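The following record pairs a protein chain with its ligand, iron/sulfur cluster.
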Amino acid sequence: MSPIPGSGLAKGLAVTLRTMTRRAHTAQYPDKQPELPPRSRGVIGLFEENCTVCMLCARECPDWCIYIDSHKETVPPAAPGGRERSRNVLDRFAIDFSLCMYCGICIEVCPFDALFWSPEFEYAETDIRDLTHERDKLREWMWTVPAPPALDPAAEDPKELGAARKTADKIAAAEAEAAAAAEATGTATGTDTGTGTAGDTGTARDRSTDPGTGTDAAPGTGTGSGTGPGDGPRTGGGA
Ligand code: SF4
Ligand code: SF4
């Protein structure tokens, strides 16, 4: 069956009319900034203090676009008689973003949390050499890294947290035990009232130097010597 003449034109006009009334999806960048997801892969920031120059990121980068230079320094021993140690000191850390393919492997493999994604993306250059960002620039990017999202309250605790809690519980139990033992010792030594036997009314005095005083009501002599509070059971003499 042959189509009705002019039906194609009518369909086209209908589509035009329909889309004319809808909101456009085109973002007018750069007049309007795009709303990016918070964990967008814009640029990589370096938190230099965490970097131990282990070179893992440079080795794992598939594009070989991370450049790291370092030297070794000797650190004096922490305690007298200890052994000197050596540590790596970072001299250069650069990423060539003209080669980077934003795979995120370097960030994943860094064992010391020194690399982070920042959503910043406006760093286009007219000279390709300027796309190699040195450590100062990478540090600047670090301040644009958003805070991590809140943890899901229904999520399982990570294993590390469980281990840390166990250790904290053990330490707390050991401390409570030590405190109880110290209290028991104090009670045993601190309840000495200095009373003797056989009518000895001697009063105990302070430890070691004071012999104490006492009057013996019973026949005989009683010196009432003893040790005072905090020094073990008193021995009272009396006839
Ligand atoms: S994101 Fe990938 S390509 Fe870019 S520096 Fe890291 S490892 Fe290399
Ligand atoms: S993997 Fe991390 S700690 Fe190791 S060199 Fe790279 S940024 Fe530094």
